[in-house]
Amino acid sequence: MIVTDTDFASVLAKAEIIELVKELFSKKHYLIITPKVYEELEVPKEYGYTYPDEIFNNIDVLIVESREQELYIDMIGSNPGSEQG
Fold it and tell me: CB within 8 A of 1, min separation 6: which ones?
């Protein structure tokens, strides 16, 4: 799984190479975006840009189940290295 951020997904869409990258990684990996990236890509659509549609049509959004989120929060809460000072 390759989690793409807003910038990388946008570059792939604008260069029209999402399908090429998906094919390149198809045997071992697949592209996803997070719900936050999806939200960020909604903004350019409000200004009339269409490249986010290419992303939405070709890259899945990773949805985390509530139990997975709880486990993650517990994990980072118990990690002494997560404290910032």
Answer: 29, 30, 32, 62
- Per DSSP, the three-state class of 83 is coil
The structure's pTM equals 0.74
50, 68, 79 from 18: Cα distances, Å: 14, 29, 36
Both tokens of residue 72? 């993650």
Cβ density class 42-60: b for 16+ within 10 Å, e for less: eeeeeeeeebbebbbeebe
pLDDT digits (tens, 9 = 90+) for 33-48: 999 999 999 999 999 9
Q: Would you give the distance in Å from CA 61 to the centre of its chain?
A: 6
